[in-house]
Design a protein that fits this description.
5-stranded antiparallel sheet; 15 strands; 20% strand; elongated; alpha/beta; disordered C terminus; 6-stranded parallel sheet; 277 residues
Length: 277
């Protein structure tokens, strides 16, 4: 157990920290923009291939507009609260099928086309794709948490393979004891996802802190019995629209770790420098 402070103010004593992945651990927006753009392109092309008349009646243009809105994709990038940023692959697939249905495609065909589009584009995300880089200062924080004996876990709507790919590519695997992904049931934002990850980490929810970039993450944490949750705001081009009731941090250096179970307390700032001994 170790005490954590946020900009010098105590926030509690914890045994583990649970991290969201996309937009929290990782700068995933550039890869997600590429993925969303590819899904839009392939959806339009598959619609036209199946129904050539759709290129003439304006349906293909309407589909592109609706998909961009559904994915949270615009000239500013990916919206931090949009489906591409927050939702699981399965939920994005259903969103795609629903959008196809909105331009007049019957549901069975819409679902089949959505599956085909995702098959076309799955190589752009997760295992085998380029890996996003970690958010600035993350390594220093993980070193501090590890040094204080805290366990770390990932809770994400990415798949297990995608989580492992990101951690392995960036040399972070050794800092994380467990993960809970979209492949697990229930997946987030169900509070049961938090309970599942806590069980893997062998800690109680009341001993954990969750850090994420979406209100759904933060509300899930409190519903699961965690004493607090922190909003992380630096992982996107646009600041995530987080509820101001949740404490927020802009950089990992806003956090400090104070180990108190040793005879003499040691405090680490995220920069790695010793503050008190």
């Amino acid at each position: 157990m170790a005490h954590l402070t946020l900009r010098g103010q105590p926030i509690g004593r914890f045994a583990a920290v649970l991290f969201d992945k996309d937009g929290t651990l990782s700068h995933s927006e550039p890869l997600l923009i590429t993925l969303a753009e590819a899904r839009v392109f392939h959806a339009v092309q598959r619609l036209i291939a199946a129904h050539p008349e759709r290129a003439r009646d304006g349906s293909s243009t309407e589909l592109e507009t609706l998909l961009r809105r559904a994915y949270g994709l615009d000239q500013h990038g990916v919206h931090p609260a949009g489906t591409t940023a927050v939702a699981s692959r399965e939920h994005n697939l259903i969103s795609t099928a629903t959008t196809l249905a909105q331009v007049g495609v019957g549901w069975p065909e819409a679902l089949a086309l959505a599956h085909a589009v995702f098959s076309d584009t799955d190589g752009l995300h997760g295992e085998g794709a380029a890996a996003a880089r970690p958010t600035d200062g993350l390594m220093e924080l993980l070193i501090a948490l590890s040094g204080a004996g805290l366990r770390c876990g990932v809770i994400s709507n990415d798949g297990t393979a995608g989580i492992r790919h990101f951690l392995h590519h960036n040399g972070l695997s050794g800092f994380f004891s467990a993960s809970w992904s979209a492949d697990h049931h229930p997946c987030k934002p169900d509070p049961g996802a938090v309970h599942g990850l806590c069980a893997l980490l062998r800690v109680q929810p009341a001993e954990c802190l969750l850090i994420g970039d979406a209100n759904s993450d933060l509300r899930m944490a409190l519903a699961a019995g965690l004493p607090t949750a922190l909003g992380y705001t630096a992982g996107w081009q646009r600041r995530p629209p987080l509820d101001p009731l949740f404490p927020q941090l802009q950089h990992w250096s806003d956090l400090a770790v104070i180990e108190t179970d040793e005879p003499s307390a040691v405090s680490w700032a995220v920069s790695g420098s010793s503050v008190t001994e």
